[in-house]
Amino acid sequence: MDQGTKAQSGLEHVLWCKNRLIPQPLGVVGLIVPWNFPINLLFSQLSAVFAAGNKAMVKLSENSRHLAALLIQLIPQYFEPEKLQIFDETGGVGVAFSKLPFDHLIFTGSGATGKRLWQRRQRI
């Protein structure tokens, strides 16, 4: 990103307003993607993660195994392994994945699962 880039808000005419864009990558972001709309939810979140300069690890739902298998096969052709990793739910990966020390974690899913995830993350 260019050091001279400024965010635009439409309020530039107001004298006391100043806009700044401060790129601050978080590091490694974990994404837990649900079974419904997995492509949309994955790539919309992933584009924001990469735009901010982060790396990503993605765990797809156990109900998206065919998509996970396809992405596990295709992703290495387009992304370096240290930039993006995809995991499926085979073998009960979910709990272990949620316990990894991510710099940031994005979860889309049920409130009950979100609460359990939050409690697990508090113990890390």
CATH superfamily annotation: Aldehyde Dehydrogenase, Chain A, domain 1
- The CATH class designation is Alpha Beta
- Number of continuous helical runs: 4
The tally of domains stands at 1
Q: Biggest sheet, in brief?
A: 4 strands, parallel
Tell me, what's the shape? globular
Q: Based on helices, strands and strand pairing, what is the structural class?
A: alpha/beta
For the largest beta sheet, what order do the strands appear in spatially?
3-2-1-4
Helical content stands at 25-40%
Q: Which spans of ≥5 residues are poorly predicted at pLDDT below 50? A: none
Q: Can you write the helix and strand succession as a string?
A: EHEHEHEH
Task: Give a count of the beta strands, DSSP E runs of length 2 or more.
Answer: 4
Rg of Cα set: 17 Å
Can you describe this structure in just a few lines?
Helix content is 37%, strand content 16%. The protein is of the alpha/beta class and 124 residues long. It has one domain: Aldehyde Dehydrogenase, Chain A, domain 1, CATH 3.40.605.10.
Notes on the protein architecture:
The protein is α/β, with parallel strands linked by helices and 124 residues long. 37% of the residues lie in helices and 16% in strands. The chain has a four-stranded parallel β-sheet.
Which descriptors apply to this entry?
124 residues, four-stranded parallel beta sheet, alpha/beta
Outline the secondary-structure elements.
Elements: E1 28-33, H1 38-51, E2 55-60, H2 65-78, E3 84-87, H3 93-98, E4 104-107, H4 111-122
